[in-house]
Amino acid sequence: MRSRLHRLFTGGTLALTAAAALTVAACGRSDEAPPPPAAVSNPVDPATAGAITGLVTFEGTPPASEPISMDSDPYCEKQPQNRTETVVVGEGSGLQNVFVYVKDGLGDRVFPVPSTAVVLDQKGCRYVPHVLGIQVGQPLELRSSDNTLHNIHAVPQQNREFNRALQLTGMKHTHTFSTKEVMVPFKCDVHKWMSAYVGVLDHPFHAVTTGNGRFELKGLPPGTYTIEAWHEKLGTQTQMVTIGEKQTSDVAFTFKG
Amino acid sequence: MALRLYTRFVAFSTAVLIFAGGLVTSTGSGLSVPDWPNTYGWFMFTFPLEKMVGGIRYEHSHRLIASTVGFLILVLAVWLWRVEPRRWVRRLGYIALAAVITQGLLGGITVLWYLPDPISIAHAGLAQIVFCLTTAIALFTSRSWASAASQPVDDSMLRRLTVVTTAWIYVQILIGAVMRHTDAGLAIPDFPLAFGQLIPPQWDPKIAIHFAHRVGALVASALILATAGHVFYHHRRDGALVRPSALLLLLLAAQITLGALTVLTARHYVINSLHVVTGASVLVTSLVLTLRAHQSRLGALGAGTAAASIGVGRVPPERGAFEGGPAGPTRTGARA
């Protein structure tokens, strides 16, 4: 029994040492490094570029938008009432917050990466905007406009997960994604109701439907494309669309509830 | 006397800590404080109370309670080192200290690495070990342990039953931890049936782990009933065995009820957390029974000197010159 206890004690000490080493390793983890900018190849000729416009509608009776209880934080409780943003249907049954993008058809083109940051704000105890798109390597500015504590927690499958504290009003954190991924969910673990989705692509042809369900993909070279419409609850739909030189094609998606 | 009360307080505090940890998992608040060991850049103990909102309330409270329990166990280890004549009990104190420090580090790592399942499950499993250690220390320093030393139980069947039961309860808790941390708690949404049938008609990894937890509960229940039945039949006059057996049955009934309610309330966070801490209580109660059943063997390690630290009688100290303990530790045969 004594030797058994001795072995147990030794094992405990070893486990402690291993855990300490793991902690040091954990503390040394750094944020995702931006990928080196790829050389632009086969650029789009603006003289021949066309566009795809469209409408995403909801068919059926949309679920009622429910008020969100925000009483777990006195600051949030004083903000304008937030409502669920899962399915938002506007005028003409237009479906809002649908991420529409070119899924296939661009070939081996390499597009320039914008240096302008896309902003994802924590404002009024909600993410603004709820859905957005960004390019690989493009800065994503994460900020808090609220006078309360938020964390900003990305839970991607292809990119690296991160979780940052935004403890001061106006505090910012900039992140770049290294791999395309549709979609990267964001949450705030302090306030369970807060969520956002970011579509990360290797090209600029993406849009998010507005309140009337409309979208526009501009500057596309002539060709045939697979267009995908993604919705956080209703899933995805794809369509093949062909556009000629300086042509604008219209496409419609309908999600059923 | 003071040490005896203190060990009980430490064991109780460990249970509170496990409940607080259960709340963190049940509310999904594990990552609401992204940094560690600081909290949003503040030193843990200076974090403003008014900023404990939303998920931070659960996670930061868990950290504060964990730090307090860690300090309590540190004091316990030092106290045992100073006054406890039995070397193996002193060593249990050191092991408890090492375990709770490791537990704290695992908690930090799981936050910094975004709750990887293996680390989170290890954190849950080690929490039970810490609770077992603090409970065992409380038992070994108790008056009843010392007084029972002269009439140790000699029942090989009970010894085997209690070991198997305690080990299985621990395995069952680990299965529960896997279920919690892999988000399989509602993989089977109905109770007591599974999708309306005795055996799930469909399978995936989450359903399998959830069903394993239910089957494990049945096995644990059978083992507990067998153990308690054995005690009530063969040792009904031995209060040191009957009391934990009765408590074990009560806790088992509560635990099964809480498990059912966890599913039926779609994992209400308070019920879910009570299920966690009640499971831990079942484990340590079974451990107490196991240790009592094995007291005759532990006695060979110097259990007889237990009375020395609580002043029941008089025996020579295990160490030649008593290291820091009360002068003239005493013991006689105790209960007889």
What is the domain total for the residues of chain B?
A: 2
- Outline of chain B, from the CA principal axes? flat
Run of helices and strands of chain A: HEHEEEEEEEEEEEEEEE
Low-confidence stretches of chain B: 303-336
Roughly what percent helix of chain A?
10-25%
Radius of gyration of chain A: 23 Å
What is the tally of beta strands of chain A? 16
Distance between the termini of chain A: 66 Å
| Helix fraction bin of chain B | 55-70%
Q: Which band does the percent of strand residues of chain B land in?
A: under 5%
Low-confidence stretches of chain A: 19-30
Structural category of chain A = mainly beta
Q: What count of helical segments of chain A does DSSP give?
A: 2
CATH class of the largest domain in chain B, named Mainly Alpha
Q: Mind explaining what this structure looks like?
A:
- The complex is a heterodimer of chains A (257) and B (336).
- Chain A is mostly beta strands and 257 residues long.
- In chain A, 12% of the residues lie in helices and 38% in strands.
- Chain A contains two helices and 16 strands.
- In chain A, strand 7 and strand 8 (162-166) form a beta hairpin.
- Residues 19-30 of chain A have low confidence and may be disordered.
- Chain B is mainly α and 336 residues long.
- Chain B folds into two domains: 1-141; 151-298, Four Helix Bundle (Hemerythrin (Met), subunit A), CATH 1.20.120.
- Helices cover 68% and strands 0% of the residues of chain B.
- Chain B is flat, with a radius of gyration of 21 Å.
- The interface between A and B is large, with 35 and 37 residues.
Features of the shown structure:
heterodimer, A: 257 residues, mainly beta, four-stranded antiparallel β-sheet, 2 helices, 16 strands, 12% helix, B: 336 residues, mainly alpha, Four Helix Bundle (Hemerythrin (Met), subunit A), disordered C terminus
Concise description?
The complex is a heterodimer of chains A (257) and B (336). Chain A is 12% helix and 38% strand.
